[in-house]
Hints:
Strand content: 5-15%
Distance between the termini: 52 Å
Structural class: mainly alpha
Strand order of the largest sheet: 1-2
Largest sheet: 2 strands, antiparallel
Number of helices: 7
Amino acid sequence: MAETWLKCTECKTEIPFGGKHYLCSVSTCKRSKMRLVFCSVVCWDSHLSTVRHREAWAEDAVAPSREAWQRELAAQAADAEPRRTEPPPHGVRPPVGSSTPVVRRVVGEASPQVAASLEGLTLSEVTDKDVLIVVSKMKKYIKDRSGFNVSDAIAEGLSDHVRLICDDAIRNAARDERKTVLERDVPRARR
């Protein structure tokens, strides 16, 4: 780690301690875990093509000195060390660790008519029957665009298309190891 602080996120050029570099103005790119740094505005600009920020700019920054960087690393290591405590008394369970996601479930009862119509179906079969589009807006769009009337039956077919697009977007987000589906995950509309 001679005189190199970090490497440019895009081109891997070494950025020296105390050297000038650029940061992305978006808060998610500034996180200490992410630590995106760029040696030039050109490298920062190439980063924009992959992340699709709505509004962003390059911010001038100066790398820390070697001593300041070592203090920062030591502080991060101290925060990462697990805190030692006395073992809990016999029969008392420790709280669930933060690595386990907390899931809140609100369960209600369906009306008798709905419950009867859904009896014997799996959850995926039930959700696959939901209409995922706003039928009134779809009808208005078609009427305004062409003057045609619209059958209610096409809502299910369009919902199936929306499901396929959503499934593709979910796969794209999972491929990037994200738990959030972003605009870039949705396949482009064909014309």
